[in-house]
Amino acid sequence: MTISTRFKAWFAVVVVAIVATLAYAGRANTRNVEATAGVERELELGRDLERLTVAILDQESSVRAYHITGDRRFLHDVGASETSFDATLPKILELSRDYPSQLERSRHLARLGAEKRAWMRALTELCAQGKLEDATALVRSGRGEALMDEFQEVASAMNDEARDQVQALQTAVARARLETNVGIAALCALLVAAFLTIRQQSSGLLRAANELADSEERYRLLFEHSSDLVRLHADNGRTVFVSPSVLRLLGHTPVEFMAMAPPEFLHPDEVEPVVENVDQVLNGACSKSVLTYRLRHKNGEFRWFEVHVQRVRNADGSLVVQSSARDITKRLELEQRLAQQAEELRDLSLQDGLTGLYNRRGFMEVSKPMLKAALREKRAAALLFVDLDGLKLVNDRLGHEAGDRFIREAATVLQSTCRASDVVARLGGDEFVVLAPHAGAGPESVKMRIERAVADLNAEPGREYELSFSVGAAMFDPLSPAPLDELLKLADSRMYDAKVARRRQRSTQSGVSDPRELAGTSTDSQPSNVLGARASSSEAIALPGE
User: Fold this and answer.
1) Rounded to 5 degrees, what are φ and ψ at 381?
2) What is d(CA 512, CA 523) in angstroms, rounded to the nearest whole number?
3) What pLDDT, in 10s, does the model give residues 288-326?
4) H/E element, 306
5) Beta partners for 542?
6) 188-215, pLDDT tens digit by residue?
7) Could you state, in order of their start, the residue ranges of all structural domains in the chain?
């Protein structure tokens, strides 16, 4: 075979091999592009789910704040939240249409969102109409919380499936890249066989291939975490690579940020633990970790980030620490506001609005654990049922504002004379109750303190009325424990008996035998000593024993 024939044959073989290799690489590249588009679609779905959840959480926070405060300014951002929700939901449905399970969850999410928003509109309308009791009943029904929990569960399930899809697509991308590289390698082998001069450039090509691999790895990280702050840390803790998102998140260019040492962008309280954690990951003490710490923005303020840290290997085999940080400042602020609102709602449900004391529900909730502790420690406790005398007379003659002051004075006297460990509550109207969990010697010391405080108050000049209590007491015996309800009934009964006995004594002393007076009802001929002439402190308060 002549040289010309061999050249032609070799040339033909080379051309066919090149065409075949290019076709192979082209198909691999097509699969790579399709898989990459799929990754972007799933990442966009995750971002849209996050926006949808934030929109409905913001709307709920505004509506609940309006319900608590009645301030319509909290509703100013509701329209923006609804617009964001309405704009994001169709995108989620569109992104899910090729995946039956995700599409079904998207439709379920839409139904839940509609129900939740209808619930919030109903709550807003009730508050706007002044139907606060109906609004509070709607909140306490738990329907709104259940809808939000189910909404977040469905969104979380969609996020989990999206992450699984991303992992699968990333595997497909890696496989397509591998096939592309195989095609390129085959083509290179043919070219090496055809052109021996490539040997002289092999070292340069190897360096270029390593640099290309490092570059591809970095851009892959940027692509997968486009909304996060991605960094690579050297063994001395300095940043050797940072994603362009640092400009949006912290206001620094990548060059500015990489020139900074950790103390320059970390909060002073967190420099040592963060650097120590990076060292532990790099040295293999732990393979990965999740931290929450603050990073300084270029404007000087600190932003909270949730940071995932893990050790990775570069293309040259060296170990570096990769961190992926997500700004969670708004999420933490929202969680704090929701927790504060929940605490305020709980306080409102346990507190008497006029006196600031516990109401009946608050008293029952706080006292039952105290009696359990007394039973466990074999310790006696005293329960006093206190009735404020003359409230109706004060209301009738001086007005209800004076009656409210009368009640608040009574609450102040009881609270100031009781210990910090005692529970003082207003059950309603003119009825108060005191639980003294450390009154093993009986209720007499508590009664004496109340009597002295009442006498001192009534001795003040210029008062329009005198304060007077009727008290009944019951002891909690750990050897024969009685339920709290029974103790209340017993103390109430003793208080009533003491009140009747005191009125019978007064009637006997004054010669009056009106049956209404003996039954506990004031008469016009024998007015109470709450108004008018002042009585002695021993007459103004009845403090019966057990």
Assistant:
1) -140, 155
2) 10
3) 888 888 998 989 899 998 888 887 877 677 777 888 888
4) strand 302-313
5) 470
6) 776 776 666 656 556 666 776 777 777 7
7) 1-194, 224-341, 351-540
φ, ψ (nearest 5 deg) of residue 472: -125, 140
What is the secondary structure of 201-245 as a DSSP string?
GHHHHHHHHHHHHHHHHHHHHHHHTTTSEEEEE-TTS-EEEE-TH
CATH code of the region 224-341: 3.30.450.20
Choose among 512, 529, 385: nearest CA to 463: 529
Which residues fall within 8 angstroms of residue 218, CB to CB, at 6 or more apart? 232, 241
Domain 351-540 carries which CATH code? 3.30.70.270
* R_g over Cα of the chain: 39
Residue 390 DSSP symbol: T
Predicted local distance difference test score (pLDDT) of residue 528 = 43
Long-range Cβ pairs for the range 295-299 (8 Å, 24+): 295/229, 295/250, 295/265, 295/266, 295/267, 295/325, 296/250, 296/264, 296/265, 296/266, 296/267, 297/250, 297/251, 298/250, 298/251, 298/252, 299/251
* 33-66: burial string, b at 16+ Cβ within 10 Å, e else: eebbebbebbbebbebbebbbbbbbbbbbbbbbb
pTM over 0.70: no
Buried/exposed 175-209: b ≥16 CB within 10 Å, e otherwise: ebbebbeebbebbeeeeeeeeeeeeeeeeeeeeee
DSSP assigned state of 464? S
**pLDDT reading at 412 higher than 90:** yes
CATH no. of 1-194: 1.20.120.30
d(CA 493, CA 387): 11
Amino acid identity of residue 426, one-letter, is: R
Stretch (H or E) spanning 449: helix 444-458
